[in-house]
Each structure stands twice: as structure tokens, then as C-alpha cells.
Amino acid sequence: MGETTWLFGLPCSGKTTLAEGLVGPKTIHLDGDFLRDTLNTDLGFLKADRTENLRRAAGMAEVLNKQGFDVVASFITPYESQREMIREKVSDVAFVHVKAPIDVCEERDVKGMYEQARKGKIKNFTGIDAPFEVPEQEEDVLEVQTATHSKKENLKEINMELNRKPEPSHVFLGRWQPFHDGHRTIIDSVADNRKGVVIAIRDTELSEKNPFTAQERKELIKNVYSSYQNVKVMIVPDIDTVAIGRRVGYSVVSVPEKIAEISGTKIRQEYEEYELLAGAHLSD
Ligand SMILES: Nc1ncnc2c1ncn2[C@@H]1O[C@H](COP(=O)(O)OS(=O)(=O)O)[C@@H](OP(=O)(O)O)[C@H]1O
Ligand SMILES: Nc1ncnc2c1ncn2[C@@H]1O[C@H](COP(=O)(O)OP(=O)(O)O)[C@@H](O)[C@H]1O
């Protein structure tokens, strides 16, 4: 049985952006705009139409959950009664109120709709001339603030608060001599969302090219990722070949060239200036 995370909030509050950061390998993303362009082209924005739109979306979420898929739904879902209906229809649903002040949403105006609504060219626009019922405090809803917190912070909070388990996903194998910004950029690109990450450290012999012990590197990397529940760090033997079979359920991806240019050699030269040569720092 899968679970549904239902993001709701004003237009341009950040629902779609956060939903995209929450999807994992077995997650289906149901988005208001997408459904309205496909399945729900017959519906408008009066209250009854919105309720029907959400009834269909909730039905789909439940069907998908029953088949083992997680669902992330991103819809304005403006009325309390609509959120209640969704709770009744979807057995395992957690609500996230994606919050930003209306003036921030209006400033973002990703699709220029607030401007059109202000000019009266779009009627019944949520936040302008159609209501958005803010949830009662006691309601069982997680709130995230997108005007004052970054996407990365919001995603971390959602994953932590909803206790969503990360899916195992990427293994990064390397010497990490030392672990630097280039490594971080690559790993962060997947460590930000629900995917699990394993950082495997090759247990190299100390040399000029390998000045740090595996244990030292492990401590350093663990410190960097101390707040990430989905990152595991482990030491592996100094393997020199990775052998893979075809169609065994995983893919091998290359590092983007721009990031590959960040050089460990250059960084080691800087360390040498401080006499952090092979093991020299260990003898004290
Ligand atoms: N009148 C009016 N009011 C609100 N939104 C409007 C309207 N007309 C078009 N749009 C666009 O439709 C997107 C919201 O659709 P939803 O399915 O999420 O809305 S609802 O939950 O049924 O209320 C919404 O997308 P988001 O900005 O992603 O929320 C708008 O792009
Ligand atoms: N912390 C944040 N979380 C999500 N979006 C943010 C955040 N900060 C700024 N934004 C920006 O706000 C805009 C929200 O747009 P979108 O995700 O389409 O909202 P919605 O789906 O609610 O209409 C995007 O341009 C996004 O980059």
C-alpha cells in the first residue's frame, strides 16, 4: 500500500515545485494544471467544479496507493470541505499547506494569472475573487513557508515530519581525497529529495595522492551530511573495477563535465602548502 502526500495552497505558493522535489522512483505526481489539461478539461473554477476535480484526483490517488504507488498531489484545494472529502477518500493521506503571503505569490506570478485576475480577465481566481480557506490550527496539517525558507529546507522538513522513508537509489564510489565542492554538488543533486544515497569510500593506502585515512574521510563526509537521514557513509576496500551486468535494474550515470573540472589535485596542492602531505598530519 502506497501513501499520498497532498500539497495545497494559493496559486504560485510553490506546490508544483515542492511536489517535483518529493517524487521518488515509485511515486506518481498528480498536479492540478496537468489534470485540468487532460482528464478534467470539462471543469472550471466554480466551487462545484473544483470539488469534482478534487474528487477525481483523490479517487486516482487511492487507486494508485492500493497498487503500491506513492502519490504526491499538488492542487489548490481551497475549501476545508474539500480537504475533508479527500481525507475520507484516501486511506493514507498527509496534508501539507504550502504557505506564502498572497503578495509574494502575486509577485511570483509564474503564469501571469494574478495580473489577468486583477484586470478582471480571469474570474473566480483563488486569492483575488475566490476564497482560500486557511486550515484551522488544530487541523492535522503540516505547514511549510516558501517565502522565508528555501526549497531545500521545505523538502527536508516535509520528509522529516512525515517520516517518509527514502528509497535506496544512488551509490557514489570514490577516494574523496579530500571531499570537495564538486563532489558535494553532484551528491546534493540527488540527496535533496527522497532518494537514498550511499557514499562509499575506497580504503586507499596513504600516499601523496591519498593523504587522508578512510576513517578521517568518513568523519568529514558524515559531518557534512549529519542532518540528512537519507545519506549513508561507508568504507569499502580499495577496489579498482566496478563490474555491472546488463538489465539488472540499475543504470550507470556520468558526472556532468562542468563539475568534473573541479579538481581534487588542485585542492590537494593547497593542502600541501599547509604540510598536510601523506599522513604528515597523523604523526603529531
Ligand atoms: N480561477 C482560477 N483560480 C485558480 N487557479 C486557476 C484559475 N484559472 C486557472 N487556474 C490555474 O489552475 C491551477 C489550479 O488548479 P487546481 O486543480 O489545483 O485548483 S483546485 O484545487 O481545483 O481549486 C492554477 O495552478 P497553480 O498556480 O499551480 O495553483 C492556475 O494555473
Ligand atoms: N521555498 C520554495 N518552495 C517552492 N517554490 C519556491 C520557493 N521559493 C521560491 N519558489 C518559487 O516560487 C514559484 C512557485 O511556483 P509553482 O511551484 O508553480 O507554484 P504553484 O504550483 O503553487 O502554483 C516557483 O518559481 C519557485 O521557484
What's the gist of this structure?
The protein is α/β, with parallel strands linked by helices and 284 residues long. It has eleven helices and eight strands. Helix 9 links the parallel strand 7 and strand 8.
Helices, strands, pairings?
Blueprint: E1 4-8, H1 15-22, E2 27-31, H2 32-37, H3 47-66, E3 70-74, H4 80-89, E4 93-99, H5 102-108, H6 113-118, E5 141-145, H7 151-161, E6 167-174, H8 181-191, E7 195-202, H9 214-224, E8 231-236, H10 257-260, H11 264-273
Parallel strand pairs: 1-3, 1-4, 2-3, 4-5, 6-7, 7-8
The structure holds 3'-phosphate-adenosine-5'-phosphate sulfate and adenosine-5'-diphosphate (ADP).
Describe this structure in words.
- Residues 2-139 form the APS kinase domain.
- One of its GO terms (cellular component) is cytoplasm.
- Pfam families: APS_kinase (PF01583), CTP_transf_like (PF01467).
- Keywords: ATP-binding, Kinase, Nucleotide-binding, Transferase.
- Belongs to the APS kinase family.
- The protein is α/β, with parallel strands linked by helices and 284 residues long.
- The protein folds into 2 domains: 4-161, P-loop containing nucleotide triphosphate hydrolases (Rossmann fold); 167-282, HUPs (Rossmann fold).
- Helices cover 37% and strands 17% of the residues.
- It contains 11 helices and 8 strands.
- The protein has helices at residues 15-22, 32-37, 47-66, 80-89, 102-108, 113-118, 151-161, 181-191, 214-224, 257-260, 264-273; strands at 4-8, 27-31, 70-74, 93-99, 141-145, 167-174, 195-202, 231-236.
- A 5-stranded parallel beta sheet has the order 2-3-1-4-5, sandwiched between helices.
- The longest helix is centred in the first third of the chain and has 20 residues, at 47-66.
- The model has no long low-confidence stretch (mean pLDDT 87).
